[in-house]
Amino acid sequence: MAVPLRTDTPLTLVPLSWLLGRWEGAGVLGHPARGETDTRFGQVVEFGHDGRDFLSYTSTTWALDEAGNTTDPLDVETGFWRPQPVDLDAPAPADGPRPVELEVLLTHPTGVVEILVGTARGPRIDLSTDVVARTTTAHEYTAGTRMYGLVEGDLLWATDVTLAGHPMRSYASARLKRVD
């Protein structure tokens, strides 16, 4: 699927250009440490840029009822995805595109701020927690991993988390379609 690039797209953003735009879809989340059973949710994710060398990011989720209608708001994430310049003088890997190092900064209204680091390699992104800062009233979130991928033109993602002293486990995943 071709993604049109704006003329002001910085070279560092080109490997992530497949993310640009608005995505909508549904997924499932739940973690026993928080007393949660699996909950279906709807989600809107937007990736954009203003000509500088980072992506802006917003994700909003709502619980879905049995009929698929939105009910209660669940979460909002806002932040920035900062790809690092690729060393074009380094030899290209024989097994695919050059990896792009990423720094992702996210803020949650629940009192959690996190920095994730990882790599993008073609249409797959793998991230893991580098730093978590929490307010005194935030839930005990200490670490997470995220995977994003472009599959059959859809954005698929999954996250594993460590909560309330429990070991890392699957927490949420979704499949989103581009809506541009």
TrEMBL record:
It comes from the Bacteria. Pfam families: THAP4_heme-bd. Residues 13-178 form the THAP4-like heme-binding domain. CDD domains: lipocalin_heme-bd-THAP4-like (cd07828). A motif (GXWXGXG) lies at residues 21-27. Belongs to the nitrobindin family. This is Ferric nitrobindin-like protein. It comes from Kineococcus rhizosphaerae.
